[in-house]
Amino acid sequence: MLGHVNSFAAQTSAASSAESIVVTCDSPATCEAAMALAAALALPFREPGCGDTALLLVHTAAGLELHDTASGARLRVDYTPAELQRFRAGSGRDPLRRALGPGARRVIDATAGLGRDAVHAVMLGHEVVAIERNPVASALARDGLARARAAGRLPQNNPQWHTGDARELIPALTAADTIYLDPLFPPKRKKSAATRKEMRLLRLLAGQEQNDLELLEVARACARERVVVKRPLDAPPLAPGRIATYPGKLVRYDLYRPGN
């Protein structure tokens, strides 16, 4: 995983924009790797149990974890065989499958987060380029991808992963058939406590919200065939001009044509 994080240091301010994040380890065996990660991310390193900080990025033997000491929430990215099989076996009525488009496509996930929608798209047979602007979220996702690949659960180079501002990266990448956007939105009240804790951690990482309308404009200017925007079922469209929508149980996928 450490081979992927050297480009993150330039984006440190995004990683710590909401709350201070400290890198640590869970045992002497993982401290060297944790110190290398802290240096790559330009974040402070502390020995276990030293100091009082809200967010800890912990290098453990099982994988990279984000700990929220205030709530007790812990977040580690795992792509389990059952989850990957569920993605792969999605029926023809899978709303994400329908929204991304027919056949094997080149897809850019411009707001990849922890990577689950990008991996879902890979399991549906697409070539995926994932972009996440927050270096810590990106490190967590890359760690999960690396462990899944080491276990033979995912292809080595799909999804391709980039850390940075999608508004700048998308025009520089090979054009995609479909560009996918998943703006961060508030969790539903009926979601489980675990889901709410994970959402809180993601929000703490996100810090200042991205200009979603500007990103949509970039996506529409660069996509070959379609732009897909994920929204809560009861939320208004992100922008006028959607041409179709594909509802699921909790979210829907709004479809836009390329162009301005």
Describe this structure in words.
With 260 residues, the protein is of the alpha/beta class. It folds into two domains: 2-75, no CATH class; 81-190 and 209-256, Vaccinia Virus protein VP39 (Rossmann fold), CATH 3.40.50.150. 33% of the residues lie in helices and 21% in strands. The protein has nine helices and eleven strands. The strands form two sheets. Strands 7-6-5-8-9-11-10 form a seven-stranded mixed β-sheet, with helices on both faces. α3 crosses α5. The termini are far apart.
Strand and helix layout:
Elements lengths: L11 H4 L5 E5 L2 H14 L13 E6 L2 E6 L5 E2 L5 H8 L6 H6 L5 E4 L6 H8 L3 E6 L2 H16 L9 E4 L2 H4 L8 E4 L11 H14 L5 H11 L3 E7 L11 E4 L3 E6 L4
Parallel strand pairs: 1-2, 5-6, 5-8, 6-7, 8-9
Antiparallel strand pairs: 2-3, 3-4, 9-11, 10-11
> What spatial order of strands do you see in the largest sheet?
7-6-5-8-9-11-10
Helix and strand run: HEHEEEHHEHEHEHEHHEEE
Level-1 CATH class name of the largest domain: Alpha Beta
Number of E-state strands: 11
Uncertain segments are 1-18
Q: Could you estimate the helical fraction of the residues in percent? A: 25-40%
Largest sheet descriptor: 7 strands, mixed
Summed up:
With 260 residues, the protein is an alpha/beta fold.
Q: What key phrases describe this protein's structure?
A:
21% strand; 2 domains; 260 residues; disordered N terminus; alpha/beta; 7-stranded mixed beta sheet; 9 helices; 4-stranded mixed beta sheet; Rossmann fold
